[in-house]
């Protein structure tokens, strides 16, 4: 499942560089996560790095984009194939 940054975001800038898939960008008011790029760091790390570094705990599961571990790995493979 993709992750989502909620309204508690203070725009501290630490999550964007922590994302290995470049799924995080500055939105109009707060940072946003692109669900097409977010793999919850599956295939990179044991836990989502944005969640690890977030000082205000404003990153939640995006219930509108449910995905299994297998689907997240397949998404990662597609993303990596696109980089090649």
Automatic annotation (TrEMBL):
The UniProt record lists the keyword Nucleotide-binding: no
Entry keyword annotation includes Protein transport: no
GO-annotated molecular function: 4 iron, 4 sulfur cluster binding; metal ion binding
Cofactor(s) required for function per UniProt: [4Fe-4S] cluster
Occurrences of domain 4Fe-4S ferredoxin-type (ranges): 1-29
Alphabetic keyword roster: 4Fe-4S, Electron transport, Iron, Iron-sulfur, Metal-binding, Transport
Name of the protein this chain belongs to: YfhL family 4Fe-4S dicluster ferredoxin
């Amino acid at each position: 499942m993709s992750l989502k940054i909620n309204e508690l975001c203070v725009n501290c800038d630490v999550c964007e560089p922590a994302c290995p898939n470049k799924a995080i960008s500055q939105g109009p008011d707060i940072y946003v996560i692109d669900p097409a790029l977010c793999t919850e760091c599956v295939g990179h790390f044991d836990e989502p790095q944005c969640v690890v570094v977030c000082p205000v705990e404003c990153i939640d599961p995006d219930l509108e984009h449910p995905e299994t571990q297998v689907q997240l790995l397949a998404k990662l493979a597609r993303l990596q194939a696109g980089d090649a």
